[in-house]
Specification:
- The complex is a heterodimer of chains A (about 1000) and B (about 90).
- Chain A is about 25% helix and about 25% strand.
- By secondary structure, chain A is of the alpha+beta class.
- Chain A has 7 domains: about 1-155, Ubiquitin-like (UB roll) (Roll); about 165-290 and about 425-485, FAD/NAD(P)-binding domain (3-Layer(bba) Sandwich), CATH 3.50.50.60; about 295-420 and about 500-510, FAD/NAD(P)-binding domain, CATH 3.50.50.60; about 520-585, BFD-like [2Fe-2S]-binding domain (Arc Repressor Mutant, subunit A, Orthogonal Bundle); about 615-665 and about 760-855, Probable tRNA modification gtpase trme, domain 1 (Gyrase A, domain 2, 2-Layer Sandwich), CATH 3.30.1360.120; about 670-755, Alpha-Beta Plaits; about 895-995, Elongation Factor Tu (Ef-tu), domain 3.
- In chain A, the strands form 13 sheets. In chain A, strands 8, 9, 12, 13, 14, 15 and 28 form a 7-stranded mixed sheet that branches. Chain A has a 6-stranded mixed sheet with strand order 41-42-43-40-34-44, sandwiched between helices.
- In chain A, a hairpin with a 2-residue loop joins strand 37 and strand 38.
- With about 90 residues, chain B is mostly beta strands.
- Chain B has a single domain, classed as Folate-binding superfamily (Folate-binding fold, 2-Layer Sandwich), CATH 3.30.2270.
- Chain B has 1 helix and 6 strands.
- Chain B is globular, with a radius of gyration of 14 Å.
- The two termini of chain B are about 25 Å apart.
- Classes of the chains: A alpha+beta (about 1000), B mainly beta (about 90).
- Chains A and B meet through helix 20 of A and helix 1 of B.
- The structure holds zinc ion (ZN).
């Protein structure tokens, strides 16, 4: 099978390796080294999609990242990905792709009716049309727009690909491997600088791959290959192809997306699909080149109209002819270079040059080759629907306002060159205020904002000789500053053809009586007429015009459209382009996969998972785990077919009747040492700490400066100047930072050191009436009687040869102890507790039973200490010292905090003693009151009381102190429940606290 | 992502730090009688400056020291960093 548009033995593709692929269901073949675009063009396929708004047929416009049309849905290894540029996607065996924006097919698209109804779709169409009636939005407008618009479909499946993030530091980061990138990289590398050279395409060399130039007595392409080969051997250099630097962020950090596997049929095992590089560079060299800009004329979106540089690239890199009867339309010498390549390969082009009498070496060469050239000529309109069939052309007056007689000439493609636009995106992202360069009708970087330098075509320098010279010098100079080496590199001699000045001409006037669409933004279908409407309607700022018309807002970010849009605005507004100014460039330069941005932080890796030393035991004993912050904690230990409710009830009941053991390793622990430790505690906690004796623990509450409760816990005095603080699991890190803040910044005179010991200790809470029996068995030589180890007492012991700390503290309201051993011994401790506890019917209990026990005792926890409550609200006002000052005390005097009807924690029991109360429900006085029904409070925590065998909840209730005995309603619109309840004391079980002291 | 010089550890990426607000705020002394206004200014009232701003950061994933950072809130330029007890010149 031959390819009609492929030249023999031209290009850089590997003709030994044929690849088959499918486009819109049809089978084709191409070669290794092709892009999807070049392979389709080789097969004569030009129609690749439909436009966004009018659904007009669209083909290929560029050959790389600037492509506005050829966006396809890709199918690879049973996955699908939208928004893939066919001009960037490398061909692989078995590739499948489909057009987007067309339904039912690219050849027959119902949406194309928009093209004939285009009167309805002018600028601002979305703003104007879909505004009313409001009820139409969800039912009619949105579904219609969703079906008609969009650039492909995202997969709904879990992405099996792996994406990596990498952090890198370098001396010089160089964006782009064209002439300036290669020379600066080479000079810097020779000075020993650590260099990263990034190229977004698969091949290095940039314009040297297609330009007919000579460097150091060899072709530009060969010179580039030689430099790259040498750079690759240098240990201080990283060269990366398929790697797009897409964002320039603060403090010289740039982000690069490396396509590791997109060119392969399937990602190799253990390889990522993409790798995102976060690169902190001392110096950044932007050598991103330039993008050819189109000239605007009628029907300039017809498939077959493309940039002349793209036509040249398809020919020289891929051996593909984009047409056999090409028409070149140019305002500068670049069009001639493309024409010369066509001519050399046996295809006779016609050149239309808008200039009157241009003269240069390049033009002379074209003439000598016998190329047909028409000066002062323009394309008025492309003719043909799904493919260019001919062009209406005309001569144009010197002032570019009058067209001559329209002639029609047959052609199968129109290659356009409207001169070059420097790719200033990265420089602009760095904060560089760009400036307009009159000679090239485009913006170039101004003064560097960060440590960035723009070189070559990206800086508006189009002479190769000058580019090489400045780039070698810059690479040498910048690297010398960093490495102190200064190795001379001789600058090679350059042979390039001199070109003449371009014509400041960018838009062909409409011929009389014709109303051709002349597109500026090809991806968002913004035409000259749309900009005219926006300006007529009063939009002036270019930022507003952009948003109203969507000019430059498509996924290509207006790479080919921005400047022509600006030219138009400036012309109508009678301003110069720099006065209009350009819109802001923002990262990413080109669309980046969400997967690459997310990296490996997905699923279970989206946060760290911490496990206690006893985790394996819990797992073996059927624990059902729950996430508690980053920790995994047993929620309950499932027996047989028990559910959560049954299991936790059994566990809680066993604590109340016998004894239970709970893994409390996750509690935050902070070791506090130093002579001023007591003073620190006294300032941090609301209650008094100066007189706590050695060997005693105390419960404390700490506030933020605004008076809100921050955390609670017990702190134990281990020895004279040594304390052990516990915090809640959730607040452990915050409390440590809080203490460090005060010690380092506010009271540096306090001689105290704090350090987290959460990981150092494994903890087991042993609770229940028989807990003392278990403790005695664990420590047979200790006096653990009520006198020997009273409530809130502390002692150290030897647990079968292991050093242990024993605290008599209780969270469950029962007689209880907490035993800590060094983490490595946690499992041993746990097994010993289970062993000696067996005769007392010990059972492990999880967080659900733990909650039940604390709720029915009226112990406040995270759900009450929710960042909105003060000590009074939590019935902790008894712990607030009146004598001393502490953090947040002054705030407690605020009027709202001292109001008589201030909210306070209460207990709530359903009148029927049966209906469970959903957490988060509201409490109201009258269930039938009109909305909005005044809310008196909310349910903070609910449980099934094992003591009374009925539901019980804690609530934060307005004027809670005086509400005991009141009948209210719990309302949960979410659960559709209205429950009559009675307000009771929050201390539902053992209100006098006798058990903990027994 | 900012690049912050910890005066104890050297240049480190922003992800190692945690932001701590305006460094010029001074906590009123303990046990001192102060007006509601003074207290409110300390707890709540902050200027939202555009430009040079002295702020607190904690090197939480490093040395855990609180440091002072002089930063431009508009451009993110960092002029100088200081240890907690260092005088800001
Ligand atoms: Zn540090």
């Amino acid at each position: 099978m031959s390819q009609d548009f492929r030249l023999d033995s031209v290009g850089l593709i590997n003709r030994d390796k044929k690849l088959s692929f499918k486009f819109n269901g049809k089978q084709y073949f191409g070669y290794e080294g092709d892009t999807l675009a070049s392979a389709l063009l080789a097969n004569g396929v030009h129609l690749v999609g439909r436009s966004f708004k009018y659904h007009r047929p669209r083909g290929f416009f560029g050959a790389g990242v600037d492509e506005p049309y050829a966006i396809v849905q890709l199918y690879r290894n049973n996955e699908t990905e939208p928004n893939i540029k066919a001009t960037e996607q490398e061909l692989f065996e078995g590739l499948e792709a489909r057009s987007v924006n067309c339904w039912p097919s690219v050849n027959f698209d119902i949406g194309a009716i928009n093209n004939f109804l285009k009167i309805f779709l002018p600028a601002g169409f979305y703003y104007k049309t879909f505004m009313w009636p409001k009820s139409f939005w969800y039912r009619i407008y949105e579904p219609f727009i969703r079906k008609a618009a969009g650039l492909g479909v995202a997969s709904t499946k879990h992405d099996k690909e792996r994406y990596e993030h990498k952090y890198e530091y370098c001396d010089l980061l160089i964006a782009g491997s064209g002439p300036s990138g290669l020379s600066s990289a080479y000079a810097a590398a020779k000075n020993g600088a650590k260099v990263i050279l990034a190229e977004d395409k698969p091949r290095f060399g940039g314009s040297l791959l297609t330009d007919d130039v000579n460097i150091g007595n060899q072709s530009g392409k060969n010179w580039a290959e030689g430099i790259i080969a040498e750079l690759k051997t240098m240990p201080n250099v990283v060269v990366k192809n398929r790697s797009q630097i897409f964002g320039y962020y603060d403090h010289n950090m740039l982000v690069m997306s490396e396509k590791v596997s997109d060119h392969l049929p399937k990602t190799k095992k253990y390889h990522p699909n993409k790798r995102l590089w976060y690169i902190r560079a001392k110096e950044v060299l932007i050598s991103s080149g330039s993008i050819e800009r189109p000239i605007v004329f009628g029907n300039n979106d017809t498939p077959g109209v493309m940039l002349s540089s793209a036509a040249k690239e398809y020919l020289k890199v891929y051996g593909v002819l984009v047409g056999k009867n090409p028409l070149i339309f140019t305002n500068n010498d670049s069009g001639y270079e493309t024409a010369i390549e066509f001519q050399k390969h046996g295809v006779q082009p016609t050149v239309l040059d808008s200039r009157k009498n241009p003269e240069s070496e390049i033009i002379d060469e074209a003439k000598s080759l016998g190329i047909n050239i028409k000066n002062s000529y323009v394309v008025v309109a492309a003719q043909g629907y799904k493919k260019v069939k001919s062009a209406d052309i005309a001569s144009i007056s010197d002032d570019k306002k009058q067209l001559g007689k329209i002639e029609n000439i047959i052609c199968d493609c129109i290659c356009v060159s409207g001169f070059w636009t420097p790719s200033i995106h990265l420089a602009s992202q760095s904060g560089n205020k760009t400036k307009f360069k009159e000679e090239i009708d485009a913006f170039v970087p101004g003064t560097s904002k960060q440590q960035e330098t723009t070189l070559g075509a990206a800086n508006g320098v189009f002479s190769l000789e000058e580019t090489l010279k400045t780039s070698f010098e810059k690479g040498r100079e910048l690297s010398k500053k960093i490495t102190d080496n200064d190795n001379e590199v001789s600058i090679p001699n350059v042979v390039e053809k001199k070109s003449s000045k371009h014509d400041k001409f960018w838009c062909v006037p409409l011929p009389a009586g014709k109303n051709y669409k002349r597109f500026l933004d090809f991806q968002n279908d913004v035409a000259v007429s749309d900009i005219e409407i926006a300006l007529r309607e009063g939009y002036r700022s270019i930022e507003h015009v952009k948003r109203y018309t969507t000019l430059g807002m498509a996924t290509d970010q207006g790479k080919t459209s921005n400047l022509n849009g600006l030219q138009l605005v400036s012309e109508i507004e009678n301003k110069v382009v720099p006065a209009v100014g350009h819109t802001t460039f923002r990262p990413p330069y080109t669309p980046i996969s969400i997967g690459a941005i997310v990296g490996r932080e997905v699923g279970k890796n989206s946060k760290p998972t911490r496990k206690s030393p006893m985790h394996d035991w819990h797992e073996k004993n059927n624990a059902v785990f729950v996430d508690a912050g980053v920790w995994l904690r047993p929620r309950y230990y499932k027996r047989g077919n028990e559910n959560l409710f049954e299991g936790s009830k059994r566990e809680a009941k066993n604590v109340r009747t016998n004894v239970g053991v709970c893994d409390v390793t996750t509690l935050g622990k902070i070791d506090i040492k130093g002579p001023d430790s007591a003073e620190l505690l006294n300032r941090v906690y609301t209650n008094a700490w100066l007189k706590l004796p050695v060997g005693k623990a105390r419960y404390g509450v700490m506030l933020r400066e605004d008076g809100i409760v921050m955390d609670d816990g017990t702190t134990t005095r281990i020895s004279e100047n040594h304390y052990h603080m516990t915090t809640t699991t959730a607040q452990a890190a915050n409390v440590l930072s809080h203490l460090e803040y005060y010690l380092q910044l506010v009271w540096p005179e306090l001689n105290v050191n704090v350090v987290s010991t959460t990981e150092q200790w494994a903890g087991a809470a042993i609770a229940g009436p028989k807990s003392r029996d278990v403790l005695q068995k664990l420590f047979p030589n200790l006096d653990v009687s009520n006198e020997g180890l009273p409530f809130m007492g502390y002692m150290e012991g030897n647990l079968f040869g292991v050093k242990a700390r024993i605290f008599r503290i209780s969270f469950s309201g029962e007689l209880a102890y907490e035993v800590n051993v060094e983490s490595d011994n946690g499992n041993f401790m746990w097994q010993k507790i289970m062993e000696v506890g067996e005769e007392f019917k010990i059972q492990p209990y999880g967080t659900e039973a733990l909650s039940t026990l604390r709720i029915e005792m009226g112990h406040v926890a995270g759900s009450e200490l929710d960042g909105r409550t003060i000590p009074y609200d939590n019935a902790l006002d008894g712990l607030v010292s009146k004598k001393k000052d502490f953090i947040g005390k002054r705030s407690l005097q605020r009027a709202a905090f001292t109001a008589g009807d201030r909210q306070r924690v209460v207990g709530v029991v359903p009148l029927d003693k049966k209906t469970s109360i959903p957490e988060g429900s509201h409490l109201v006085k009258d269930a039938n009151a009109p909305l909005p029904n005044p809310k008196l409070g909310h349910i903070s925590a609910s449980c099934w009381s094992v003591e009374y065998d009925n539901p019980f909840s804690l609530a934060i209730l307005k004027d809670g102190k005086n509400m005991i005995g009141e009948k209210l309603f719990v309302m949960s619109p979410l659960k559709n429940k209205v429950i009559p309840v009675e307000v009771v004391s929050s201390h539902y079980v053992d209100p006098k606290g006798e058990r903990v002291r027994s | 992502m900012l690049y912050i010089k910890c005066p104890h550890c050297g240049m480190r990426p922003q992800i190692e730090f945690s932001y701590g607000g305006d460094a010029s705020v001074k906590r009123p002394e303990l046990n001192k009688e102060i007006s509601d206004q003074e207290w409110n200014d300390f707890v709540y009232n902050r200027k939202s400056l555009r430009g040079k701003h002295l702020e607190l950061w904690q090197h939480i994933s490093g040395c855990r020291q609180w440091i002072k950072v002089e930063r431009d809130t508009a451009t993110h330029e960092i002029f100088k960093t200081f240890k907690a007890d260092e005088e800001v010149a």
